[in-house]
Amino acid sequence: MESTNQQPAATLDAAQISEWVRAQFQKANLFLAEKGILMDSVAVQDSRYLPPLVAVWKINGLDRQSYWVISGDLPTDHLALTAAADAREALRAFSFRWQMKAQQLIDAGVQDQTSADYVNLLISRAHSLYDLFENEQFWAKANTSNA
Description:
- With 147 residues, this protein is an alpha+beta fold.
- 51% of the residues lie in helices and 18% in strands.
- It is built from 4 helices and 5 strands, in the order H-E-E-E-E-E-H-H-H.
- The longest helix has 22 residues, at 87-108.
């Protein structure tokens, strides 16, 4: 992935950022493969990452479908490309999806600590994603670096 798409965390050096991006890409690719989706290509110019927190990949599958895939310090997940116009909107879509999933789990009744921890993780990460979606400074930098 080109360095113009990264918004590096101050505590990571270039080698650590490169390794993190590689690991997140592999994680996203493996996740899709487990869902029966084989990757054809990644749209680098439309993907965004913020090491060590989150990566949003625009991935084209061999099935001729395209997907938004999210990985990082959060659950790995995917959406159809039609769910969001760009990486920023994809963050909001994942945020809403995880909020709804958490509520469904709560409504169904959380039976054990593992389920409670998962619900709390979904809620926490959904809020963090929405905060990032709303962060104008981040997106101004991301858009400037792609020009």
